[in-house]
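Annual report, structural modelling task.

Input specification for the protoporphyrin IX containing FE complex:
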Amino acid sequence: MWKVWRRMTHAEDARDVKAHGSRIGLYEGTRPYLLCAEPDVIREVCIKKFDHFVDRMEPVIAARYWRKMLALLAGEEWKEVRRRLTPVFSSGKIRKMTALMGECADTLAKNFLKNVREKSAVVDLKEHYGAFTMDVIATCAFGIKIDSLSSPDDPFVENAKEVFSGPQSRSPLLLLLFVSKWIPRLMSGFFFTKAFTFFLNVGKSIAEKRKAEKNRERGDMIDLMLDAQDEEQKENEADPTKSTFFTDEVMIAQMVLFFLAGYDTTATTLTMATYYLALNPEAQDKALAEIEEKMALHGGINNETVNDCPYLDQVIQETLRLFPPGLRIERTCTKSIEIHGIRFEEGVRVGFPVYAIHHDPEFFEDPEEFRPERFAQSEKGLRHPMTFLPFGQGPRNCIGMRFAQVEIKVALCHVLSQLKISCSPQTQVPVEATTSPNMTFQPLNVVVEMKARN
Ligand code: HEM
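The model returned the following structure:
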């Protein structure tokens, strides 16, 4: 718990694995927990024996909408809601949302150029990319168009800041959540802040408006979730013994969850990819040459372009290896089982230290070096597939993975084609980083120099 509080889990996990080996038993408050860095065990738990490890940890917050978020649902309810949400993130549906992302990326590049022209050539990456990913979630999950960087007083922006950096997210009371499973129930009011209520209310009113309008042309997440509701309703009319899972409450909880799960993780990845490209001009030139070639071939930045940039993909994968925003993948054992000599009892939690695995020289040679070539097709096949875990693994992996990948590529295509990025005297190498109490990995003060390309 002390580690969580000191916010150095990434480095300490790596040190612990080095010092104590790949199987470490510990207690999280009163609950037994296995920290395990073995790719074969990861494959069994996340994929082959998934039926024994369907759940994540029990939701620490008891409030109604929290418990309905996909990331915290358990058992059958998780399976049903995941099944209904899967089509929302299919390639075809993301294709429609790419145009919405493109509008936000256009604003992103304009804001960088404005910063360079009117303020300074040195830009704070997280500030700009955080605004971009907020704009994307606002338009795709809430149907609201904003330019958050230029509208700091917009209630959406103000409340989002409160959720991610309000006093609750920094309180030592957070540690109490892990002491016993009853404490969280007493503390739910503590997290159910005004800002959360704001997002729930926005979600509710937009869902009601769309239902009343019966207009689903935008093709965003709200439209697609309303389609999922209709489908469930049809199936249940045909078979009245079936239960309804995808209620309005579930739908609104997912809108807020997509914002929580997609905003900071994606902004961090964009920040770090841009930082590594500033440090590695050759990789930047290669990525730019590819982007320019594919823009000419496909007529600008569109779905075809972003799906046809293999080197840019490698850059993003290498960024996620070096700097995975999700530091641990976790599951709870729901049916006892033995795996590779480890006896898992029901209720035991298991965590896979993503950062420690990504930085282990046994799996990645010279792990601290930025080398996108590691992810070339010919190299990938030589590694154990469970050593690269930025989006988790198996049926409970990140449902937003493809959405995030397209969003990142759209943004980088816009930025790299218009701006040259380099290190400034203020750029810190190596980057300073911290672990936030929700186990995400955060870079601090990442600044680079930018120059308009023409
Ligand atoms: C670079 C960006 C992102 C990273 C690195 C990331 C990473 C992760 C990781 C590591 C997990 C846990 C997977 C596991 O336990 O196996 C996860 C789960 C999840 N992510 Fe993401 N994520 C990103 C973007 C997004 C976006 C954009 C969305 C939604 C719009 C999203 C929605 C979710 C949800 C709903 C879950 C829970 C899935 C479930 O329990 O079934 N993520 N993500």
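The chain has one domain: 2-452.
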